[in-house]
Amino acid sequence: MSAPRQRVVMAALLLNANRVISVDRIAEYVWDGAPPPSAAATVRTYVMRLRQSLGEIASARILTRAPGYLLELGEHESDLGQFTARRRRAAELAGRGDLAGSAAELAEALALWREEPLADIPSQTLRDVEGRYLQELRLQTMELRFDAELALLRHAEIVPELVRLVRRHPLREALVGKLMLALFRSGRQSEALDLYRRTRVLLVEQLGAEPGAELREVHRRILSAHDRPRTPAPPRERPAPARAASPAAAWARRPVPAQLPSVPLPLSARSGELVRLRHFLTTGSMPAGTVATAVVTGRGGVGKSALALHAAHAVRGSAVDGQLYADLGGAGRPLTARTVLPRFLADLGVPRDGIPEEESERESLYRSLTSGRRLLVVLDNASGGAQVRPLIPGSGGSRLLVTSGRRLAELEGARTLRLGPLDEAGSLELLGGIIGPDRVDAEPQAARTLLTACAGLPLAIRIAGTRLLERPHWSIGHLARRLTEAPRPLDELRAGDLGVRPRLDADHAGLRRPGPGGVDPAEVFTALGAADLSWVSRCRVAVMFGCSEEQAEEALDALVEANLLGAPTGDRYPLDALLRAYARERAQAAALRRHDAPFMRAG
Q: What percent helix, strand, coil does the chain show, rounded to 5?
């Protein structure tokens, strides 16, 4: 029984080469989503046996890294690594206009594949997660090669392969469109039109949707040519207009933006969230007319932007038409689409003097330029759905990744990933990565006290680590005492242009106002600071403000929505150390404004 499970462990390590994969994630794969209580210990045993069977040199590649393991592997030491390298080389060649070289590289990459990936691995969960990702990556790469071959007028050569693929994937409109174009250019217009009719019937019957804009455009252009005499066009004239050839041909004549900022090394504590986000951005298809959208949400400083950018870098190979990025400024200094769209349009090749003045015309042009392309659009620090909607790309394979302090439930169809604070192991890993693990190991209790004061907030931990790094004569215990004993602990969490307080100010500024007769959430938060509470209930707030419990709950939920309270457990809403410190500051400021004794409400 153990040998097949060891193969699952090895497959999980190989598929996540050079990235930490947690013991919990490995256990999910090994026991197909139902690990026993002893799973963690058993996984460690399997890894030990793997090391023994691999021998001394190879086993040294499997490193123990909290909260799991990392397999060190060179890019050319695995088929998947070589595949990725050749795909990247193909994109570079296409960007320089060498479509023949690009097509050859893609063909070499695809030659590395053998049947269905992971078919002999006894884990349905692993096949569902990683196998589907690999299958989608292979299909996208095949589509890129077909685009390059069509641009090189090799339509007749690719018809048999396309016919076989369309039979296996009859609802994949990108493949259908390429086969239609290849048939048309080979003088088989009636077959191309018949394929469109059959595909439309399938889409309507099985999905309840008409063909997408790109497939309809291919059909329209074939119909237009079909009305003319059926004399095959000379090879250099290319019967189908350039627009019918999609992304690979577009590389040679349209700008390919690559705007993703760099990010620090990923945390193993976030590996599970990173896998889920990457999986959504690279697998599955959306109904016609929609764009796959993911929203990463959580409080300010929790690491939303870092996680989103790690995921974006991980999947950028599938965004063959490039990546667009904009920091929308959050609630404090929000940027509107009127400011962002001109830059996006210019990045997509529109001359500055060709950008429309009218906002609605800009949005229409943006959707037209992005329709039918595979772009990755990353919108960081969004404050609301209205800010995001004009920047959603046109349908046809693009992905949208948004970070926001709010859930953005108004974005229909968006998948939401809520990011919470780091646990103790993740916090220790982050601090050790900044100041060195030896320094943390020398003061383990002081490090835990420091991290408790930072409440698992990555921004706070980074600032604390930066201060210790800049002051090697400080002990961890010294900074921990400053954080726990200072009257204003947030003053200690500043380093350069970084600070925890501005993030909390932004969350506070985003508090929604109460309805008529409601209780102001900002006043409730101030009252919590005056009472220095570590948790509160709706009953207590009702007593403090002389309101109904329903009104109290409405105010408390607004604070949770603004990330100024933790989600309730039962009827207890928690405030961590940072939120308590910030609430006390708000209470002190309110007291000073009223020229009164320190503000306190009975309760």
A: 60, 10, 35
Q: Is the dihedral of CA 14, 20, 23, 24 positive or negative?
A: negative
Host H or E run for residue 64:
strand 62-65
Question: How many other C-beta atoms lie within 10 A of the C-beta of residue 559?
Answer: 25
**Bridge partner list, 292:** 399
Q: Residue 462: pLDDT band by 50, 70, 90 thresholds?
A: very high
Which of 132, 135, 130 is closest to 21 using CA atoms?
Answer: 130
| Environment class of 56 (CB within 10 Å of its CB; exposed 0-12, middle 13-18, buried 19+) | exposed
What are the backbone dihedrals phi and psi of residue 494, each rounded to the nearest 5 degrees, phi first?
-135, 135
Structural tokens at position 174: 């990108």
Strand partners of residue 401: 294, 378
Q: Considering the chain, what percentage of its residues have pLDDT values greater than 70? A: 91
- CA distances (Å), origin 183, targets 205, 216, 250: 25, 16, 21
- d(Cα 362, Cα 350) in Å, to the nearest integer? 11
| Per-residue CA distances from 152 to 104, 106, 158 (Å) | 12, 14, 11
Q: Which runs of consecutive H residues, i.e. helices, occur in 111-172?
A: 124-126, 132-151, 155-168
Instruction: Name which of 268, 302, 271 is nearest 566 in CA terms.
Output: 302
The 3-state DSSP class for residue 404 equals strand
The β-bridge partners of 227 are none
Q: What are the tens digits of pLDDT across the range 385-443?
A: 889 999 999 876 789 999 998 888 888 778 899 999 999 999 999 999 899 999 999 99
The answer to whether the bond into 160 is cis (omega within 30° of 0) is no
Q: Do β-strands 415-418 and 494-495 pair in parallel, antiparallel, or remain unpaired?
A: unpaired
